[in-house]
Amino acid sequence: MLIKELPALAGGADSVVWAGGGNQDELLRALLPMRPETPRRAADEPFDPDALMIAFVGPDQPPDGWSAALRGLPAGGRLLLLLGWPVADLPYHLVLDPLVGAGCQVLQAVPVDKANRHGVYCAVIAARVERLAPLRSYLDDSPITLDGPEPGLPALLRLTGEHTFADLVVRPLRRRLAELEAGDRPASAG
């Protein structure tokens, strides 16, 4: 997905709230190339429910700034979190813990094309919710909405089952990758 397609996927934005990290001007130009006039607000101002909170976090950007800004996100408020780690290196616990702590549901996570231009490898779209939002397929590129039927027990059972199986499949792959990477390193002289 192109970085400029992310705001529409998140449901659009009448205004944006920059919650920290990264080069704000460069990232906002990449996100909103056709709408440079989009009103911008600071994270410490009252939050407009139609605004889109945007933040960048990466290896050199601790999550403190944007996670503190989440406290001002009202129910239904949306966050576009731009991530500066390659997907394979993503320490998702650093991202997930503040989101869950603020009552946010991760609605979609997508890889971003051309990361060498802007340093964004993937993005997470989340919203503060009072009930679970409908589940989405990772292939769904329609704008995200929070209304619709709440997932029932079968959907939650499917979700927890998929997580368990995904973890089962990924662990040996990561171990094998680490072994291959270790085998590619030259032996230390000594």
Could you characterize what this model shows?
By secondary structure, the chain is α/β, with parallel strands linked by helices. The protein has two domains: about 5-150, Rossmann fold, CATH 3.40.50; about 150-190. The chain has six helices and six strands; from the N terminus they run H-E-H-E-E-H-E-H-E-H-E-H. A six-stranded mixed beta sheet has the order 2-1-3-4-6-5. Strand 1 (about 15-20), helix 2 and strand 2 form a beta-alpha-beta unit. The longest helix has about 30 residues, at about 155-185. The model has no long low-confidence stretch (mean pLDDT about 80).
Termini separation (Å)?
Answer: 47 Å
Shape: globular
Mean pLDDT: 80
H/E element string? HEHEEHEHEHEH
> What percentage of residues falls in helices of 4 or more residues?
25-40%
Q: Output the CATH class name of the largest domain.
A: Alpha Beta
| Integer tally of domains | 2
Q: Low-confidence parts lasting 5 or more residues at pLDDT below 50?
A: none
Instruction: Return the structural class.
Output: alpha/beta
Record field, number of beta strands: 6
Give the quaternary arrangement of the chains: single chain
So, CATH architecture of the largest domain? Answer: 3-Layer(aba) Sandwich
CA gyration radius, whole angstroms: 18 Å
Strand order of the largest sheet: 2-1-3-4-6-5
Strand content: 15-25%
Number of helices: 6
